[in-house]
Amino acid sequence: MIGFRDVSAGYRRTRVLERLSFHIEKGEFVFLTGPSGSGKSTLLKLIYHELKPLSGEVIVADFSSNRLPRRKVPYLRRKLGVVFQDFALLENRTAGENIAYALEVTGASRTFIRRRVSRVLEQLGLADKEKCFPNELSGGEQQRVAIARALVGEPFILIADEPTGNLDPAISLDILRLMIEINTLGTAVLLATHNYGLLKGREDFRRLHLSSGRLVFDGPNGNFAPSAPPAEI
Amino acid sequence: MLRTLKEAILGFTRAKTMSLFAILVTGFSLLVLGLFYLALLNLNTLIRYLENKVEIVAYLRDNADQSEVGLALEDLSRLEGVSQVRYMSKQEALDNFRADLGPDSDLLQDLETNPVPASFNINMKEGYRDTLHVQRVAERAQAFSFVEEVDYGRDWLRRMDIFKHMVSVVGLSAGALLGLVSIILISSAVKIAIFSRRKEIFIMKIVGATNWYIRRSFLLEGFLKGALGGLLAAGLIFAATTVFNDRVIPITNFSDRYYLYTVLAGGLLGLAGSWISLGRYLRRV
């Protein structure tokens, strides 16, 4: 479903990721951890194709980074749901409009959009917030709207880049629980974080750990030791 | 299409200050260009008016042979640039002179002979009323033995030539410079407006909007803003010319078509500015 084969990536003169290889299967929940600057966001950018690998191959569903013309990138993105630390909501649109927007750009019909949006709002406990503008919502609610927008197109995977970075610990746990719930309904989740508190008590979850651009751990969270040797490539 | 229009109109309200800035900059630039063009238009009207006064007068000797005069008249009529050659007899010339003198015409009553010479009055076609062509015709007229003297306001014509040349050179270069400045101003305003919405473009891209989807709403918005700027300029030019006509002196006005062109030019500039500025953001993500 998502495959990294010997992927190196970076920007101009700096190489950020070195020879990464791993797979994420359908319906998996994966934590991506590592200190700031270890390359977590770069890895996610490779998945949603904001960045092309310098070498190696990134496979997302049926799309391969080696054979993906620029005009096809939007179609790849429609299969993903992406959530950011700063929520990335349009300030002048209501929660409902922000969510609907992700379907509008695909050319979906109005009836379909209305149906999907109300279902997702319901699912995420936002039904009464549909008409609110982002600045009328709390941080946690804004992130829920962002997650709703990511889910409305029924992606096979939800990619979250530090989704709790701007939230207090209690709300962060709420967001994590929400993501786990989404995962149980069949959507894979890749959650990048350096908030290790989120991983406490989740020993069975798969964890990928980056250090200085290298994948140094790939296994159950319970087995993770800070000095773990590099994962096999 | 409806969705694109809705997006474009929403775009206005989303970045109100930036939209207003782009509209005002476009309007102001087109206003300056329009007024400049209007000034040129009026200078040209003035030049044409002055040129209409260009006339070559060839004074004939009293003993001129009438058949030769007839032949010369035909010959001169055929010269390049000549629109009309009129023969004015001595009597006609005297009558005109009298009429010109008005109440003082009594002065001519005691004359025993008519001192006023007959003449050829030669008019030139438009486009031939310059020193080069006029002089050629004057020299040809002078070559006839029965022509005493040719008068065509040589110095005045030369000054007129220099003036026309200056108007076209200064007009063209200042116009080009103003046009360039306008394009730079308008595209900067559009660039700033788009820069202020880069987050929005990023979000559009992340949720899977195609470049064309993003482009068309921004392009329509750019066109609408530019056209509004054009409308503003057209309105101000119309107001300025109306006031000038009523309160100062009548001037040549733009025809209705030009107002339409101003609005269209604004729209096209907005469209082009958006296209160029957007390209950078669309390539990036």
UniProtKB/TrEMBL annotation, chain A:
Record-level GO BP terms: cell division
GO terms assigned for molecular function: ATP binding; ATP hydrolysis activity; transmembrane transporter activity
Bilayer topology: Peripheral membrane protein
Domain ABC transporter residues, every copy: 2-233
Keyword terms of this UniProt record: ATP-binding, Cell cycle, Cell division, Cell membrane, Membrane, Nucleotide-binding
GO cellular component: plasma membrane
Oligomeric and partner information: Homodimer. Forms a membrane-associated complex with FtsX.
Task performed by this protein: Part of the ABC transporter FtsEX involved in cellular division.
PANTHER family: CELL DIVISION ATP-BINDING PROTEIN FTSE, IMPORT ATP-BINDING PROTEIN
Stated name of the protein: Cell division ATP-binding protein FtsE
Lineage of the organism: Bacteria, Candidatus Glassiibacteriota
Gene for this chain: ftsE
From TrEMBL, chain B:
Keywords on record: Cell cycle, Cell division, Cell membrane, Membrane, Transmembrane, Transmembrane helix
Positions of transmembrane segments: 20-40, 166-196, 217-238, 258-278
GO CC term, one of those recorded: plasma membrane
Entry's Gene Ontology BP terms: cell division
This protein's record includes keyword S-adenosyl-L-methionine: no
Location relative to the cell: Cell membrane
Main location: membrane
Keyword hit for Cell division: yes
Domain ABC3 transporter permease C-terminal: start-end pairs: 174-283
Residues of the FtsX extracellular domain: 54-150
Coiled coil spans: none
Xref: Gene3D superfamilies: 3.30.70.3040
Annotated membrane topology: Multi-pass membrane protein
Protein family (similarity comment): Belongs to the ABC-4 integral membrane protein family. FtsX subfamily.
Protein name from the UniProt record: Cell division protein FtsX
Species assigned in the record: Candidatus Glassbacteria bacterium RIFCSPLOWO2_12_FULL_58_11
